[in-house]
Design brief:
Elements: E1 14-19, H1 31-34, H2 42-58, E2 62-65, E3 83-86, E4 89-92, H3 103-113, E5 118-121, E6 133-137, E7 140-145, H4 151-161, E8 167-172, E9 189-193, E10 196-199, H5 206-214, E11 218-221, E12 235-238, E13 241-245, H6 249-257, E14 261-265, H7 268-272, E15 283-287
Parallel strand pairs: 1-2, 4-5, 7-8, 10-11, 13-14
Antiparallel strand pairs: 1-15, 3-4, 6-7, 9-10, 12-13
Length: 289
């Protein structure tokens, strides 16, 4: 039988993907509380999101919606963060941003409706967000330890994933602008092919940079002026084919020079205002050659 879930990769062709269209909860009246740059315009946000979904469909992905109303969860459109999907089912995470707690159970319900069993649920004091979890290959997961993912989260991820043969690489994240901001591991790196990664070197920990070099990754650097506009947040639609926010021409050109096909989308409301790029807006359920 053909697989309907399993996404232990950042780059294999995207076959099934879950998204959440922005609703009233996203148009927050108090952007400062959510650490947004401004109040999102809901109508424009929905148009941007619909256009993003069109790109995903044209790339061959089956797009599924997470429609459960979550009135107090503005960040719920960033469906990447509350879970990861392995070959054995979903690992339900536990959000490090207190305002996001509760998203996990809603996403778990939706995944089960879609036939993805829950393999493990983080519990107790464990914290881990999807933005800190990066598949370097099918059996290697890099885990960023920072303000959103803690040591107990790392311990439970090992408990969940090591029986599947997954090796975890720990990446110590920098303080940068502090606990209120959202600096995930994936704020600094995205994989765009099996051996190509787009990175922001100034914040990349030296041991991790060395590890990537040893593994033979070609690293495409994001310039300082494109870090804030999410230059490193790139979604692979297939090996060497990727999607990134508009407004990062230098990173786009460098990716093209590295042999990638680069698509862009307009994300003023859904990405720039609320610090969530195309990887954050999508929860891959199935990636498969």
């Amino acid at each position: 039988m053909e697989r309907s879930y399993g996404s232990q990769s950042m780059v294999e062709p995207l076959r099934r993907v879950l998204v959440k269209r922005p609703d009233e909860a996203f148009a927050v009246d108090d952007p400062q509380k959510w650490h947004y740059a401004g109040r999102p315009d809901l109508e424009i946000a929905q148009r941007e999101h619909d256009a993003l979904v069109d790109i995903l469909r044209q790339a061959g992905a089956e797009v599924l919606y997470h429609d459960e109303s979550q009135p107090d969860h503005a960040d719920a459109i960033y469906v990447y963060d509350p879970a990861i999907v392995t070959d054995e089912g979903a690992v339900i995470l536990s959000m490090g941003k207190a305002l996001r707690r509760g998203e996990e159970s809603a996403l778990a319900r939706r995944l089960e409706e879609l036939g993805v069993p829950v393999q493990y649920t983080l519990h107790g004091d464990a914290r881990a967000e999807g933005g800190d979890l990066l598949w370097l290959d099918h059996d290697t997961l890099a885990v960023g330890l920072g303000f959103r993912t803690n040591a107990e989260g790392l311990h439970q991820l090992r408990e969940a994933l090591e029986p599947l043969g997954v090796k975890i690489i720990v990446v110590q994240l920098p303080y940068y602008t502090g606990p209120e901001a959202c600096l995930h591991l994936m704020s600094l790196i995205s994989l765009v092919d099996h051996d190509v990664a787009v990175v922001y070197p100034p914040l990349l920990p030296v041991p991790f940079w060395q590890y990537l070099q040893e593994r033979g990754f070609r690293l495409v650097g994001v310039p300082d002026e494109e870090f804030e506009s999410m230059g490193p947040n790139v979604l692979a639609l297939a090996p060497g084919k990727c999607l990134m926010p508009e407004g990062n021409p230098i990173t786009k050109r460098r990716l093209e020079e590295a042999g990638c096909e680069v698509l862009t989308y307009k994300g003023n409301e859904i990405s720039l205002k609320a610090e969530g790029g195309p990887t954050c807006l999508t929860r891959p359920i199935l990636r498969a050659p």
